[in-house]
Amino acid sequence: MNELRTILKAEAHRLERENAPRMGADPWRMKFHLMPPTGWMNDPNGLCQFHGTYHVFFQYTPYDARGGLKVWGHYSSRDLIRWEYHGVCLTPDSPYDVSGVYSGSALTDGDAMVLYYTGNVKYDGDYDYVESGREGNTIMVTSPDGFQMGDKICVLRPQDYPHDYTCHIRDPKVWKENGQYYMVLGGRKKGDKGAILLYSSADGREWKLEREFSSQEDFGYMWECPDFFCLDGQWIAAFSPQGVGRQETAFQNIYHSGYVMIQSPLAWDSKGESGRMRVLPVERFREWDMGFDFYAPQTFLDEAGRRILVGWIGLPDGDKEYQNPTVERGWQHALTLPREVTRRGKMLCQYPVGELKALRGEEISLEQGQAIVNSGCFDLVVRGKPGKSCRIAIHGGLVFSWRDGMAALELSPELGRGRAVRRAQVESLWEVRILADASVAEIYVNGGETVFTTRYYPDHTAASVSVFWPGSQTNLWTMDGFSIIRR
Ligand code: FRU
Predict the structure, then answer these.
(1) Pocket around ligand 1: residues whose beta carbon is below 6 Å from it?
(2) Dist CA 162 CA 166 (whole Å)
(3) pLDDT tens digit string along 104-133?
(4) Fewest C-beta atoms under 10 Å: which of 112, 269, 316, 466?
(5) pLDDT digits (tens, 9 = 90+) for 7-66
(6) Integer Cα distance of 168 and 190 in angstroms
(7) Residue 70 CA, closest ligand 1 atom number
(8) Cα 197 to chain center, whole Å?
(9) 58 and 44 in contact (C-beta within 8 Å)?
């Protein structure tokens, strides 16, 4: 029996139980987005479907709504609508992960689910924690059923990583192809250059470095949460760079997440590139989401062959203008809806999985473009005529607009708590879908070619909806919440 594990789990359980009435009474808590029962949440981890059941693990600090010691929390579902919460499943309780169970992924391999994650270790002392003072160990845990966790096996230690990296290497994403295992890890090279390491293995335990991926020009100092996958024959390299400079209509948040289309990472020959380094075409990097709150997404392939993405509705190291008012209520952040990723030419689209339509309730008709949704939770679909400008307002102060090739999401000071505007170039507009859930809106533009995700903080539950888009067709449904069973 591991004493530390017992204590950390018991304390989380106590806080979850004790805080449940407070959370239940908070009108800003979401109804159809996954959140932890209390405290802080960040990245989705270990996303997979195993023997029919979807698993969503996540970065979780039940002990403090401002973040801190990371454990993994765990939800599962058969249909992405009815969820079960299984509590804390991995805690920092070994010498390899004592400062936090950081992000990672799940591989479903025959009769086992194998989780890979980063064990964070921070030494006490006078360190910069970049060049020295920390470890990012790669740890493997096998589960027979997705619930019971086997022993932790450390498969890569700091001395196994290349020497021209800082201590920041983490977030293993593992997949299996043609009987071989592959893993990508995000990293910060010495000299502050973001990069991705690609390893291969015959058995999932012994790993060999195959290639590295970075950029020619400056593209941030650290690349977190890499995710390589193939969609319709096209390879995608997705990652979350930190340190890319802000532009008028791109990279508007503190950190970013997006992807580039690449050739097969394994077959990629080294024409013009030296050794194992390959250059990603970062000039074609496309952000997944243009809203105020989105970071560190992960994708997985479900049993129906869909590529599904879930992101974190939040960002680390918050920006100074923004005060998240839920912190003093004892919680912070959520996960996005599961989004199906499809390819449309040179871009990827994200659209809420079809299952979510089962949550649609009553259809509300708009009168002269106006309606009130008492619950504040709805699914709004507006299809219109390209060329005409569009303005959709929720609660009066959350405004999506499009005009002359530019889409914008604006928040009033009351709703935005310091955040004002995010923009994206959208050549022409034909559809806007907004899923609003108490204090989260996900705005899908043109079938998900561009997405804006944001938190907002209304002072009452009922939401006014107003649509101005000449010649458009609107459907508005109330949305029910997920049903969640807590074990
Ligand atoms: C991304 C991230 C990951 C890390 C985790 C720690 O948000 O910083 O790189 O593994 O969060 O919680």
Answers:
(1) 42-43, 59, 70, 102-103, 118, 170-171, 224-225, 295-296, 316
(2) 9
(3) 999 999 999 999 999 999 999 999 999 999
(4) 269
(5) 999 999 999 999 999 999 999 999 999 999 999 999 999 999 999 999 999 999 999 999
(6) 10
(7) 12
(8) 20
(9) yes
